[in-house]
Every structure is written in C-alpha cells, then in structure tokens.
Specification:
Layout: E1 4-12, H1 17-24, E2 26-27, E3 37-38, H2 41-44, H3 53-63, E4 72-76, E5 79-85, H4 90-100, E6 103-110, E7 115-122, E8 125-132, H5 138-142, H6 147-156, H7 161-170
Antiparallel strand pairs: 1-5, 1-6, 2-3, 4-5, 6-7, 7-8
C-alpha cells in the first residue's frame, strides 16, 4: 500500500481544449463504471506494451514520477486535484507542458514521508521549483516562505486556523 501524495494542478494558456482533455482525463481502467476519472499519464508518456515488472517500475519512475495514473478527486476548467502513489507526477507534468505548449503549476505534499513542493513548468522548461523535506511539525510548515505552498501544506497537514480555535476552546 503506497503513501498518498496530495496534488493540486493549475493549467494556463490552454488553446487546444480537446487535446488537453485527451491528455489529462480518461475513465479509470480499474473502474467497473465510468464514474472514476484519472489523469492519463500514458498519453503524456506512453509505456511500452510488452514490458517486465522491473522495466515498468523504471519506466514510471523515469517518465511519470509516480507509480500509476492517479484518480481525480476534483476537476474544473483549469484545475485538477488528486492523490498519487508515493510522489507527484512531476516528470509527466513537465513533459505535458512541452507537448501541449502550456504552463502548469503543481503543488504537492505527502505527510507520511513529510515532504511538500511547488513546481511550475512552461512549454517543457522548469520556471520554478521548491522542494521541502522533513516537515515534521507545525512550526516547520508555518515557516515555509512561499505563501501559496505554505497554505497548501497547512491544508495537507490539517493545520488551519479553525483547528487552533477548536484546540483553544477545548482547553
């Protein structure tokens, strides 16, 4: 069973909506109905057909950054939230920004291994990269300088003002 990495992706400069939807959304192959959608990492970087388990693991690590296509939790016009296995699909998002000629921003956090980050890709190039490890307590999360990443990490680690107020009321 993997640790789940929470992700939020925003897309910018989408001109070919059909190609974009083809790249990012499909019905899950593991679902018995059409209610579960997933990010189509195979469209972004196609896995070879006949491949051993060791080769498969190396392929997804080198080309996707995560173990399998993540199920989508929420989707809007330019936004997708999802959980991925172990780590964010950062390599796939970099490639997708190149293929589609768009800008992609991904925020991610994984509480089991205590890491979070923010990546911004534009047409296959990295514009911004913040990767933080060893986020073990509230003070470390609150010390994150990038406001957007700090707010996302507070959400992932369930550190909100409402939680503080409830704790104070309980005392």
């Amino acid at each position: 069973m993997p640790n789940w990495c929470e992700n939020e992706i925003r897309f910018y400069n989408i001109e070919d909506k059909e190609k974009f939807e083809q790249a990012f959304v499909r019905n899950s192959e593991d679902s018995s109905d059409d209610t579960i959608q997933e990010i189509n990492l195979n469209f972004i970087s196609k896995m070879p057909d006949k491949i051993s388990e060791d080769e498969r693991y190396k392929f997804v690590e080198d080309n996707w950054g995560t173990k399998w296509c993540p199920d989508i939790l929420q989707i809007e016009d330019d936004f997708i939230s999802f959980n991925s296995a172990w780590s964010p699909p950062d390599k796939a998002m970099l490639k997708a920004s190149e293929i589609l000629g768009i800008r992609i921003k991904i925020l991610y956090g994984e509480t089991g291994n205590s890491f979070a980050g923010k990546e911004v890709y534009n047409c296959g190039k990295i514009e911004e990269s913040i990767q933080l490890d060893e986020l073990y307590d509230k003070k470390q999360v609150e010390a994150i300088e990038d406001e957007e990443l700090r707010e996302f990490a507070e959400y992932v680690w369930c550190l909100t003002d409402d939680d503080d107020k409830e704790d104070e009321e309980d005392e």
